[in-house]
Design a protein that fits this description.
seven-stranded parallel β-sheet, disordered N terminus
Length: 306
């Protein structure tokens, strides 16, 4: 392709729900986005899990920055096995992408990470910061598999020789392209609200998350991670109820948490509680969420799609 513009950003996962928002933000910021993925709509067609094909695909491509926003998920994971492909992508796919980044001459890597690397479970009233252990051992076997994969992904991106790495630890996504599925399920009365019992989770609106990526392309300290979450932790069941209220769907049925036990991953999520600080991203990236809580973000989305 012979691309040499140092404003080029090679974006893995550009055609996904999150990737589309990232591509839009990068384009608005003046970057040329080169989409990397398997589909015909991508500029560089390759599967991150296929090392040889990936390296062949990037021959002749030049990009100043590589962003990893690829996902293996096509729908919400319910059981731990639903996360296995994502775990593999975080480890093997990331290792391959780091090689590709060197091949295209990238000076910086930006990694999509997740706040759940701090560990599934109830963290109580503690407000987690980037100084807290990430990917630490001690979880049950299935959860440890996911946490280990998150830790390895960050280590690969942040520790790549000769390339600046920055990791963004996102909360749960909602917003355009993501929330509509929940709305549809609520309208069909197929989505209950699981009792939270005071448990809360970190959230981030998709466009707010994408703005953080655009800022990290040039900003942030190499080798550092940043929590990208809004200001208001919110229970998952409460989030479902907020969607129903914003979009005027039938109210979801309340169900006890134990009913989720057959869905091993969803149950683990339902019994996790964490509060996460975004202070470092505010101070060092110059980022702040436009939507301080998911209620305001959902209200704006409902208004825009009415």
């Amino acid at each position: 392709m012979g691309m040499t513009d140092t404003k080029n950003v090679l974006l893995a996962g550009a055609t996904g729900v999150f990737g589309r928002h990232v591509a839009e933000e990068l384009t608005s910021a003046g970057y040329t986005v080169l989409a990397l993925g398997r589909g015909v709509e991508n500029d560089v067609r390759a599967d991150l899990m296929d090392r040889e094909r990936l390296l062949r695909a990037v021959e002749g491509v030049r990009a100043d920055v590589v962003v990893h926003a690829a996902t293996a998920l096509r729908e919400a994971p319910m059981r731990h096995k639903d996360m296995y492909a994502t775990d593999a992508l975080r480890v093997d796919g990331t290792a391959n992408l780091v090689e590709a980044a060197r091949a295209v001459g990238a000076r910086r890597l930006v990694a999509e990470s997740m706040a759940f690397g701090y560990g599934y479970g109830d963290h109580g009233e503690q407000v987690l910061t980037e100084a807290d252990p990430f990917g630490a051992p001690g979880a049950d076997k299935e959860c440890q598999r996911h946490v280990d994969a998150m830790r390895v992904k960050e280590a690969l991106m942040l520790g790549a020789d000769g390339v600046e790495g920055v990791a963004l630890r996102f909360g749960l996504f909602y917003g355009p392209g993501g929330t509509e599925n929940i709305v549809e399920l609520l309208r069909k009365r197929k989505l209950p609200a699981v009792a939270g019992h005071g448990r809360v989770l970190p959230w981030i609106e998709l466009r707010d998350a994408a703005r953080a990526v655009a800022l990290a392309v040039e900003g942030g300290r190499p080798g550092e991670a940043y929590n990208i979450v809004d200001d208001t932790p919110f229970g998952f069941g409460e989030h479902v109820k907020a969607v129903a209220e914003a979009f005027d769907t039938p109210k979801p049925m309340n169900v006890p948490t134990w009913l989720m036990r057959p869905y091993s991953y969803a149950y683990k999520m339902a019994t996790t509680s964490m509060r996460v600080s975004n202070a470092k991203a505010r101070d060092e990236l110059g980022w702040a969420p436009l939507y301080p809580d998911c209620v305001s973000g959902l209200a704006d989305l409902a208004l825009a799609t009415a």
